[in-house]
Design brief:
Number of domains: 2
Structural class: mainly alpha
Shape: elongated
Order of helices and strands: HHHHH
Number of strands: 0
Radius of gyration: 22 Å
CATH topology of the largest domain: Methane Monooxygenase Hydroxylase, Chain G, domain 1
């Protein structure tokens, strides 16, 4: 009888530990989801403001419009720092579905930076997206959602690389000493 009680207690303890792990995991995912939701909202606000550049009168006021959007980027930077603190080391892949918009927005940002005359930022974006792509290449991806995300990342990388190529052939690519990030 004592053996059964011990076994029951062991099983109960194991499942209690497992439940705690699941609860902690769910709490972490929710915290990440909240940060990403805030990040997406700030990104939409910035993009909405920067869209003014594409209007006829906006192109004349690029510097002013970008200057007005700059505080939003500081907020985004803080959110990314907050997000980085929440994600366990080397476990980015577990939460990839929460920020699938990021590389799409970065490739679009690269285009808008060139439009605004900022020729160094696309180089920084290309480096980051390239490093992210390299990380995904290390994974053995089958036909699943992560594979589809990787395929999307490849297209975003191609778009950013084309921007860098265009800057290079037009002689607009900043030299190493002149890049500002």
């Amino acid at each position: 009888m004592a053996s059964i009680d011990t076994t029951t207690t062991s099983v109960n303890n194991a499942f209690a530990d497992f439940q705690r792990h699941l609860d902690e995991e769910q709490e972490l995912k929710e915290e990440i989801r909240i940060i990403v939701r805030d990040l997406e909202q700030r990104a939409r606000e910035i993009l909405t403001h920067l869209q003014q550049v594409h209007q006829e009168s906006g192109i004349k006021d690029v510097t002013v419009i970008c200057g007005q959007a700059k505080p939003g980027f500081e907020s985004v930077k803080n959110k990314y720092s907050e997000l980085a603190k929440k994600i366990p080391d080397n476990q980015y892949y577990r939460f990839h579905d929460h920020w699938k918009f990021v590389t799409q927005r970065l490739s679009r940002l690269a285009v808008n930076c060139v439009t605004a005359g900022d020729y160094s930022r696309p180089l920084t974006i290309a480096k980051f997206v390239g490093e992210l792509n390299g990380g995904f290449r290390l994974l053995n991806l089958k036909n699943d959602a992560l594979r589809k995300r990787f395929d999307g990342l490849k297209y975003d990388l191609k778009k950013v690389e084309e921007i860098v190529y265009d800057l290079t052939i037009r002689g607009l690519k900043p030299t190493e000493g002149n890049q500002s990030s």
